[in-house]
Amino acid sequence: MKHDIIAHIGMGTYRLLRGDRALAMEFGARGLALADRAGYVAWAIHRPIPVLGESGLHVKAYDRVQALTERLHDDSTALD
């Protein structure tokens, strides 16, 4: 599971840097779902949420970005 999360985060980041924001969002969403299932809150905060947020800004998915921002705040606060 851990390697699957890392692979999705890597592909999401790569796609974001290559300018394919829609595909970056797909990989980021899959990576986030895997991290959520595994309970890796810190990993979600560190990688997939920022990839999804940045990609979402580029494709103007502002509702999604707002939800990610709120989640990032809540999860970060919970981890102190």
Structure in words:
By secondary structure, the protein is an all-alpha fold. The chain has one domain: Serine Threonine Protein Phosphatase 5, Tetratricopeptide repeat (Alpha Horseshoe). It is built from 5 helices and no strands. The chain has helices at residues 2-17, 21-38, 41-46, 48-58, 62-79. Helix 1 (2-17) runs parallel beside helix 4 and helix 2 packs antiparallel against helix 4. The longest helix is centred in the middle third of the chain and has 18 residues, at 21-38. The chain starts with a helix and ends with a helix. The model has no long low-confidence stretch (mean pLDDT 93).
Number of helices: 5
> Radius of gyration in whole Å, from Cα?
12 Å
The sequence of SSEs as H and E is HHHHH
CATH topology (fold) name: Serine Threonine Protein Phosphatase 5, Tetratricopeptide repeat
- What is the overall silhouette? flat
Roughly what percent helix?
Answer: over 70%
CATH level-4 homologous superfamily: Tetratricopeptide repeat domain
Residue-averaged pLDDT: 93
Q: Kindly name the structural category.
A: mainly alpha
Number of domains: 1
How many strands, what sense, and barrel or not for the largest sheet? none
How much strand content do the residues show? Answer: under 5%
Gross CATH architecture: Alpha Horseshoe
CATH class call: Mainly Alpha
Report low-confidence residues grouped into runs of 5 or more.
none
Number of strands: 0
List key phrases describing it.
Serine Threonine Protein Phosphatase 5, Tetratricopeptide repeat; 80 residues; 86% helix; mainly alpha
